[in-house]
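Is NAP placement plausible here? Inputs below.
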Amino acid sequence: MKEHRTKLLIIGSGPAGYTAAIYAARANLNPIQVLGIQPGGQLMITTDVENYPGFADAIQGPWLMEQMLAQAQHVGVKTVEDMIVRADFSRRPFVCEGESGELYIADAVIVCTGAQAKWLGLESEEKYRGYGVSGCAVCDGFFFKDKEVAITGGGNTAVEEALYLANHASKVTLIHRRDQLRAEKVLQDRLFENPKVQIIWNSVIEEILGDEEPFKTVTGVRLRDTQTGERKVLAASGVFVAIGHKPMTELFKGQIDLDEHGYILCKPGTTLTNVPGVFAAGDVQDSVYRQAVTAAGQGCMAALDAQRYFAENPPSYSRIA
Ligand code: NAP
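Reply from A.M.:
I modeled the complex. Tokens:
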């Protein structure tokens, strides 16, 4: 069985993973980065990106991630197309196993496996994703200036995003499957007071409606009342799905501390997990900010935290190419 030995293993390839890898390579930590099942992460399913600093014109999410990959490789990161399926942080050096069956043996690990937005699971949602259906109001709200939009969900994310959308859209309709929100009271109060927001209770989106010509665009949603079964159509140019995120931490259960939603717990203000030598950065440990730029910042922090760790715990392995 092939073994990769490294001082530092980076798991994941969103903005957090690439930034950690770039900083670590430039600090001579010779990192190996295992890219995962969807190299590039959530930005690979995003179209226009207008809020990543440094680009005056909109860029495409997949292009940005290609650039990050190329930058990592230019500075000497060894990138591997594999998916870590098992991790053992109970012994040192740490041992992780790839789907390929190959082993990754590392003195330190930075976990950047990200999170996935939960989707409703409708065929029409898939069809119009990126064409009016979005999982991120901060990313895409701007495109709906003075238009009517709908958002579904009842947690903090949905309410915060509805309030954010109200800054751009002419009208925001929040659709929730029950008759009360689970968001914090203070957010609920702000939502109820906002004149641009209307709420449709006890309803679910059954279908996203749209046009194909002259270009693919969303025109509304078909709703079903969960109490009466009654159906109605709501006009909307944009539909935001904010029903939660799932951090990709299944394989770390029992290895490092996670919160009740599965996010990795880090020492506040750092990327340190409860296991010395294991760090976490990006959406896998951040349920609040969840932006490409904040993930990149945390990736940088993780590489710096790893350097500090090695200053006190000299590495036992160096990479065998
Ligand atoms: P969440 O709290 O899990 O809420 C998900 C919402 O989506 C719930 O209201 C749920 O309805 C609804 N939902 C789930 N599946 C659905 C489906 N298939 N169809 C329709 N509705 C569905 O998720 P979140 O709002 O993303 O928050 C996740 C975590 O991050 C929470 O701990 C939250 O407090 C935290 N967060 C904090 C902040 C902040 O502190 N500023 C901001 C954002 C998020 P039900 O209510 O009926 O279950």
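Short version: The chain is about 25% helix and 30% strand.
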